[in-house]
Specification:
Length: 140
């Protein structure tokens, strides 16, 4: 409850800092920035996992329509960033279930993913216990 994940970025350009802020002490710990990120990408926080030492992040490209470029787990102890095996055609930021064991997200069945004008026509579930995507439901 006292730890917050905060994204700090420049108004123009790609400089960013993702840090952990402790509201009790006012201290902040840098997690990821331009120096240790994937080139040309930043990360913003999605949520905490059921394990309080693991957070989930979404990879984004600033100032473009490419906001949904991958979901990653980040271990606060080791600093290890691991991509999750979700569909490359995902169209929306995943939502985590109340028990924090699954993500739901939308995907497109189109040949190529078009984030700005494309259509999300399937709902997927990513079960973090099984670490695999599962087809859930086509939209009617």
């Amino acid at each position: 409850q006292n730890n917050w994940l905060c994204l700090e970025r420049t108004i123009m350009g790609n400089e960013f800092n993702l840090f952990l802020f402790d509201t009790n002490t006012g201290s902040r710990r840098l997690l990821i920035n331009n120096a240790n990120s994937i080139e040309n990408y930043a990360f913003h926080a999605l949520c905490w996992s059921a394990d309080n030492n693991v957070i989930y992040l979404e990879r984004i490209e600033f100032d473009t329509g490419y906001e949904h470029e991958g979901i990653y787990s980040y271990d606060l102890s080791s600093g290890k960033l691991v991509p999750l095996a979700i569909s490359k055609k995902y169209m929306s930021t995943p939502l985590i279930s109340p028990d924090r064991k699954q993500f739901t997200y939308t995907v497109t069945s189109d040949q190529e993913r078009e984030l700005i004008h494309g259509v999300a026509d399937k709902l997927m579930v990513y079960n973090k216990t099984l670490y695999q995507p599962t087809f859930c439901h086509p939209f009617l």
